[in-house]
Amino acid sequence: MNKFSLIWSNLFRRKVRTFLILFSVLVAFLLFALLRTVAGAFEVGIDFAGVDRLNVSPKYSIIDPLPITHLNEIDRLEGVASITHQTWFGGTYQGLNNFFPKFPVNPRAYFAMYSEFEISDVHLEAFANSRTGAVVPESMARQYDWQVGDRIPIEGDIWLMADGGKLWEFDLVGTYTTGGEAGLSSAFLFNYDYFDEARVEQTQGLVGWFTVKVANPDEAAALAAEIDALFENSMNPTRSATEAEFTRQFASQVGDIGLMMNGILSAVFFTILLLTANTMMQTFRERIPELAVLKTVGFTDVAVSLLIMSESILLCALGGALGIGLAILVSDAIGPQVEAFFGTFRLSTATIGTGMAIAVLLGIVVGLFPALSANRLQIVDALRK
Amino acid sequence: MAIVSLKGIDKVYTKGRETVEVLEGIDLEIDEGDFVALMGPSGSGKTTLLNLIGGIDQPTRGSVVVGGQQLVGLSSNKLAKWRSENIGFIFQSYNLLPVLTAQRNVALPLLLTKLSAAQRRRRTEVALQIVGLEDRAKHKPGELSGGQQQRVAIARAIVADPAVLICDEPTGDLDRDTANEILDLLEILNKDYGKTIIMVTHDPKAASHAHHILELDKGQLVKQVA
User: Fold this and answer.
1) A115 reaches B (C-beta below 8 A)
2) pLDDT over threshold 50, residue A367
3) Which of B83, B95, B99 comes nearest A298 by C-beta?
4) Which tens digits make up the pLDDT trace of A178-198?
5) The domain spanning residue B17 has which CATH number?
6) What pLDDT, on a 0 to 100 scale, did the predictor assign at position A184?
7) Quick count: other Cβ atoms within 10 Å of Cβ A381?
8) ipTM summary value
9) Which residue of A226, B38, B111, B214 has the lowest C-beta tally within 10 Å?
């Protein structure tokens, strides 16, 4: 026998109670890890967004389209290195459950703008030269089991075809990689020319927003102001911001994700703290005579305190590790399903590390009072109990 | 040669404004290898005297020297270390840890030593053999009879090979036959292994196994019988 086996035996002296507490801690850390991963996925989009790219969107609402004629006017401004455009297509693929963003784009201009996305020359050429061509991230192709050459039907809900039809059909001509950090930019891309020609005539010539690469990132703010000033008195005024700022604003429309997550987690951990602390204190009270015996046979006050503290830390760390382990399994299982929306959905090392640190801290806080009480225990008084 | 030497011992407990004098002017010497029974009515101070000799309580006044070590004024940590090396405790209600097997209960005091795992295991086996419970090593206290539990407690008390065994009513919870077995075992430990035994008891038959009987009344030593 060693001290660890003594701690382990004491921890499981009342198995049902210990398993219930372990389960509570497990659920708390499962929640922690998954919610942190969700919040992290939003933050990845913000971190990833370029500071040398401006997003030029409609001033009043992102659902108001902008005329594509803005593109040439912006491109003429000094300080603009390149420009492209995107449009939110909406639409569904085989039901509402299969969500992924779909953008009609100018193939060459788009991939020149997003150089972090990698596409082979063959696939890019095929995309640029195919009227109904589309390219998707490799992860999306894997998820839906698409092969190059497949015809992919999308039912339009915002944009109708000129004949009033809703069914848009695209030919998959290639795939690209996003490095797993693409966030909302990880999308089903298809040819804008086809989209523009095929849609209802009244809506032709409209795009969702422009993306502008600035020649000098230090002058991005000035260029943004210049662009907005250019269209200030037009029918379609704009609001320009760096891509990072735009992504942050987009995320904030969903809500302050971090604040919501922290609020939920604080409530969960506070409840677990009370629950576990109560159990540890109850365990301590039940064992007062035994602790006195340990002191009698020669365990010092500090040694007895450390035994109690170790039990508490072991309980919380075990629950935390199980919860985080389960979260890893869950994220591996559901990650591919939500990757199109989040870009990436995996537990980061930071989340695992923070989770375990919180678990140990929880163990220390929970064990502190029983450990101090054990330290102060007088043998003679305790043996009488 | 005296292994226990108490001089001018007073012990006063304070409860609120009330003070209770439990021991008063005790002078006592116990020789090495002796087997002493402490008798007296309830509240006479027997257990308190035992606690002072065992180093788990401190006198209000006086000197307690056990095995050449002055215990008065020692820090809690030093007393703990001293107890682990010099004293074995046997309680009326056995005080075994219910979550541990007999073997692990016996091994508890050895966790504080620098012995290797193999040495600890060997010593535990020997202690269990001495008390005749080597075949119950894997049983938990709840699976043992009262007599067997007390034997485990005795094995725990002797496993670190202390010079002095402190026994507080070791047969108080046992039937006559089992009590006799335990007392016989204590006699063996005294005669064959040279342990000094100091035993508190209410039972004259139990006390008859001792070499000397000390009687306490109202905190004072009133009689010593050889």
Assistant:
1) no
2) yes
3) B83
4) 765 444 457 899 999 999 998
5) 3.40.50.300
6) 47
7) 11
8) 0.92
9) A226
